[in-house]
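Write out the 3D structure for:
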Amino acid sequence: MAATPVLLPGNMCDARLWTAEVRDALTGAIDADLTQDDSIAAMAARALAATKGPLIPIGFSLGAIVAVEMAAQAPERIIGLGLIGYNATADLIERAAHRPVQQNEVCAGGLERVLTEELKPNYLATINQSNKPLLTLLRDMGMELGADVFIRQSEALRLREDRVAMLSAITCPVILMVGDEDTLCPPAWHQRWQSLLPDGWLFYINAGHMVPLEAPAQMIEALSMWLTTLDDQ
């Protein structure tokens, strides 16, 4: 049975994160739902339950964290992992402390301000920080998902487990992709993750954190090359 690519979006992103070019390159890919649960473990379990057979989870940011959790829960089903803008650690102390502040503001009707002023613009490469169509798309995805999804995903990120020690136990091939201007999950982190993985590939992309939207062509090139190596195994 051929492995099914599973696309796992980032925090407050929907299926529009993955461009048509990405979908064309990933024949038969399905979208995981990361909007219903408030823990990484539950998100991973839902994604696994929604599919059958061998999988290639391809996750961005939050989605990458869930992809690794899928490998922890069902390693026998995971043929390879694609991790974009990944952080293997538990939530950083300063981020964990600020999430309840954001949650309270969002509950009081401040979702748009949090999205447009605190989150998405800081995720982009310098050249893209004034890209109005991209900023509008990021805002629209977050606003359409809404406050309840924000709270659930924020809690899942705040309470997530540290998976650094687990990386050395992931025996399937893993591709790491990071924007060279990613300040949220910087290249140095990805170098560390690669050093811990038994079969880890690392590609640098000309982008900030939002690699799938900032540089989809470069991402597809790296991903396609890596997927070819899976076919050869």
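The chain has one domain: 1-233.
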